[in-house]
Amino acid sequence: MKKLLVRGGSGSSQLLVGESIDNLIAYIDPRRTVIVTDTTIEGLYRQRFPDCPTITIGLGEKIKTLDTVAKIYDQLVELEADRSSFILGTGGGIVCDIAGFVASTYMRGLPFGFVATTLLAQVDASVGGKNGVNFGGYKNMVGVFNQPDFVICDMTVLQSLPVREILCGFAEIIKHGAIADERMLDFLDAHQDDALRLDKAIVEYLVYRSVEIKAKVVTQDEREKGERRKLNFGHTFGHAIEKLTGIPHGEAVGIGMVLAAKLSAKMGLLHDREAARLERIIAGYGLPVRPPVDLAAMLAAIRKDKKREGDLIHFVLLETLGRARVEELSFDELQAYMSSVATN
Ligand SMILES: NC(=O)c1ccc[n+]([C@@H]2O[C@H](COP(=O)([O-])OP(=O)(O)OC[C@H]3O[C@@H](n4cnc5c(N)ncnc54)[C@H](O)[C@@H]3O)[C@@H](O)[C@H]2O)c1
Ligand SMILES: O=C(O)C(=O)C[C@@H](O)[C@H](O)[C@H](O)COP(=O)(O)O
Ligand SMILES: [Zn+2]
């Protein structure tokens, strides 16, 4: 097992890469812990959790709402959870985002930790303290920055993940390579087959390196005033596509990264050859690369993105593979560049 630390103004988080869920008891007091999980994880892994009251939520982005949060508050009241209670979110990104938000707001905030059970949650969603829910159909509109005490990433639970969910995790791994580490992209290229069949050593390296990249950025800029914006590479288009089509987050981010790389090339930053290479890597990991909606629809959704400030939007571009930069673009500029970028 390897450990990393995320330091934020809201507290520090221990990231335990390769820890087993069978050792959970070393991190929590079961008499004080309430587990929040989803129906899949409850069915697959409940017998391996410590014996604690458990709140089980449904599946899918559609339940990442304030309504679900309110239902969890109700159950916490019923369980007589108090300020000495501890919330353990056990699941993918949806459980982590919701459980972290519930823990951060119930009774003005309880301590919490995560067991991240999807590849996407291990490499991204459980790390960095962004907790929240969607509102009015728009992504992550209500939330907080607040670090969990710990995150457990047990590689063995990834074996039960459906293939589509594994691929979604690779989208965020590729993102970390694209913004911060070209050698990671070389590694992803060289080890594609082993990575896709979840070879233990390969996946453990990719999870660790992803978390290392994200932990460094979050420690520098927890509240996303500058450097952290780069973690949003591919997300401006990605969130719009997710909202418009309901495809999973990782798939939408994969398409968003292809579009953002093409835009970077159009703006004279990234070489066309590099944009094409990134697209090849994303496609090689079985992810879609063409937007299933037209440009006008995406731009209309982007106008409501919470990263908009007046007529400007912070857009993450690539200078080269492995180095990102954030530019403020007006919607007119974005529209002008994108209308000359091939999107199909
Ligand atoms: N907070 C952040 O920094 C951050 C970062 C990235 C993504 N996110 C959010 O994460 C969410 C997506 O998370 P996700 O991709 O993990 O989706 P998810 O939580 O919906 O999980 C995907 C599916 O896999 C199932 N599952 C989970 N673990 C499993 C396992 N070990 N075996 C079998 N099935 C399992 C789940 O029940 C679900 O059906 C999005 O809402 C996205 O916005 C947040
Ligand atoms: O941690 C971050 O910062 C990220 O941007 C990571 C993203 O992969 C993630 O999808 C995040 O939830 C997006 O946050 P948002 O604030 O843009 O909604
Ligand atoms: Zn994301």
TrEMBL record:
Can you name the source organism? Answer: Desulfosarcina widdelii
Annotated residues for binding of Zn(2+): E172, H235, H249
Which family, according to the similarity comment?
A: Belongs to the sugar phosphate cyclases superfamily. Dehydroquinate synthase family.
Q: What is the lineage of its organism?
A: Bacteria, Pseudomonadati, Thermodesulfobacteriota, Desulfobacteria, Desulfobacterales
Q: Which reaction does it catalyse?
A: 7-phospho-2-dehydro-3-deoxy-D-arabino-heptonate = 3-dehydroquinate + phosphate
Give the UniProt keywords, A-Z: Amino-acid biosynthesis, Aromatic amino acid biosynthesis, Cobalt, Cytoplasm, Lyase, Metal-binding, NAD, Nucleotide-binding, Zinc
Q: How is the cofactor bound?
A: Binds 1 divalent metal cation per subunit. Can use either Co(2+) or Zn(2+).
Task: Return the protein name.
Answer: 3-dehydroquinate synthase
Which positions are tagged coiled coil?
none
